[in-house]
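Incident review: delayed structure delivery

Summary: a single-chain prediction request sat in the queue longer than the usual turnaround. Root cause was a stuck worker, restarted by the on-call engineer. No data loss occurred. The affected request and its eventual output are reproduced below so the record is complete for anyone auditing the incident later.

Affected input:
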Amino acid sequence: MNRFEQLVQDIKDVLGPSSGITSDDVDVEDLTHIMERYVSDKKEWSMYAMEDGNLGYTRNLVDEGNGKANLLVLVWTPGKGSAIHDHGNAHCIMKILRGDLTETRYEFPNGDTEQPMQIKSEQVHKENAVAYMADELGLHRVSNQGSDFAVSLHLYTPPNVAKNGCYIFNPKTGERTHVTCGLYSSHGNKV
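Output delivered after worker restart:
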């Protein structure tokens, strides 16, 4: 078993039969530390890192854990990124496996008034950095400002977005639109 496979197993062990991060028996800090300890090695995760330069990013399923979480490798096209989005009342722990990613966090729009989205913060996450995001922290957008593909590992629990989609937000008006989030690959095989 390589170190990436061990990371996947360690995450599954911490989640156990629980309902995910929000369960009383699961500690977000434990999961964060497990991801922090892993030092990225492309040879170990490259089979999951399928890229497509025509898309902002690809979503590649690594593991579904206990059925109450999913682990994805996302591959980010240079100069592109995600829309501003929520997480469907789920939690996300993100580990940068390759390159740098810029995370811009936003306030939720204020009621029915059309107005530009308000930036709360912006941070560049370097290779091997770990970040946590949940809806109670606001909305965010992740982008690759670099000149080469970037890769990140995302643990979502519960896997609400995979099952029910999420909302994306217009940066100029704050208008939200429901979208589904499909997979580009599953367990190393393109879907």
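Verification: The first strand starts at residue 57 and ends at 63.
Action items: add queue-age alerting; document worker restart procedure.
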